[in-house]
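Please check this.
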Amino acid sequence: MFIDFQIVKRSLEHLRNFHPFFGITFLVCKKARLPVGKSTSFAINTAEETFLKTHYKPDISSKYFFQPFRTSSRAGHWLSPKYPFSGSQSTRTRGDFEKAFIHLKNTDQWGWSKNYVSVLRAKLERDRAGLIPVFWLAVWLYRERDWPKGTTQHDLVATFVSEFLIEPEELERLFDSTIPTSESTPLLSETPYSDAELLRAVERAPDSRPEEGGILKHLGLRGVGPSRELSFNPGERLTIITGDNGLGKTFLLECVWWSLTGQWAEQQAMPRQDASRTEARITFQIAGKAALPQSSAIRYDWDKQTWPLPKGRPTLPGLIIYARVDGSFAVWDPVRHTGAAYEQQSARPGQLLFTRDQVLHGLDSKIEGLLRDWVKWQHSPDTSTFATFRQVLRRLSPPDMMPLEPGEPLRVPGESRAIPTLRHNYGVVPFTNESAGVRRIATIAYLLVWAWSEHQVYSALAKKAPQEKMAVLVDEMEAHLHPKWQRVVLPALLDVATILSRVIQPQIIVSTHSPLILASVETRFSADTDKLYHLQLVDNKGVAFDEVPFVRYGKVDNWLTSDLFELRSPRSREGEQAIERARALLAQDNPDPLAIQEVTQQLRATLAGDDEFWPRWSYFAEKKGVRI
């Protein structure tokens, strides 16, 4: 049985106001049976180091020690590896604790002074922290020990008093022996205690490497972009952003990319003209598995005209693919970006930003390009990558059409190499001659497979496990696609990650103008993992950005007339105006027959013969004596 993690977590709160001396040096000296009233040879620095390694090292990969006591250090609760030989040595030989010891300077002679208990009691009183809670200190020190079933709180205290040779006077004057009775959580649990869980509840060690594989939890913009202030909390799996042209959908995706990667895909966001010098800032939060999400607030540097990168990010994102609406792409792979390189903008390796032509034809030392890689994968003895590519293409294929199926590469006029092809019902088409919609979807498929394949290669070289998190950003998901394709492409994209790898957990963020894109996920949208956001012009002045509930409207017409698209009717503009005039007449008690006749002619000119509005209008007009 082990002390329950929630109990260990509460010990942090009960110990935070006490000086580290009482949880480290005092106990080291007690366990070593330091004499009272005289000194003896004692390697106290080494003894403290051993004690810290035993009880204060939850992160074995770090050189630092974590202590739950009071701190004013820049490193927070993490003690330097030199602490026993510097910080603690300084504490013992000066100030409040010096009088508690008998010590000859520059020697290893140490002992307790005869009045050491009074000296330490006076220190506790000056700090106004109360007496040391013996139960909570025991919880911290014994958090990893395997205890017999039936162990009580009193047993923990008794073990502490016995092992650290606590004298009755010390127990009475320095410690609070109260046993807490208000704890609802059982003391012991069958689940073994894990320091890894503790590390998720405290700040990271100063020398810890940034965790990889995070996802975006929050993005806040103030004094930047169309909206004066904006708060964005994307879903874990899918987030859809809607809104009219010019309100900031693309701008928001660019800021998402920068928050995740630390680099702009093209031009950096600029503060608003009306923003004050201290107002413009971008706040973001990337959350991983091992650490609590921590926010970074970046203020615009007006002197350097740039957004500085935060130092010491606790979490780096997983693999990211960003499909921009102009056909360019951006890819970010954490394996290629070391922590040090990430924090130095000039030293970032592998800036994976590709124009549309570079994705197609390649970029030296970065990417071979779709035309070369496709043919290479197709003719490689190892068929795994090409098999994955074919599966992704097939899943993203348009409905009511032959699935996108690679044909044999062909030579075409003006090309010195074979060009990949796709089979259609009407024949084989070289990729360079394909339609804009087919090219965009096939290119997205290629970049997804290429990025994942390269990530696996680089992970193997670094002897690291591939990422489980992948962020996919797509601007204008519907671009170049027929309505039939728009109705299936986003659900297909949700499924592609499982084709690449069963372990991948995607976070997909897309922008769209299409009601068909929204209708397509009515059976897939989950309030637990997905979110819908809407940008809207308010009073022809400011731009509002809000999360809105996902409503299943069913018919696409209903999506068009919803608050997201704000059409009064799913007809032509002229038809809409005619119906508005007709409805105004319907609301009148005694409408003018000539006006009814005029509107009838307008309706005939703008509405289809089987429009659902005709029965209502025909009944009304005939009732008023106007023949239709």
Remarks:
- The first strand starts at residue 2 and ends at 3.
- The chain has three domains: 2-199, 211-560, 573-623.
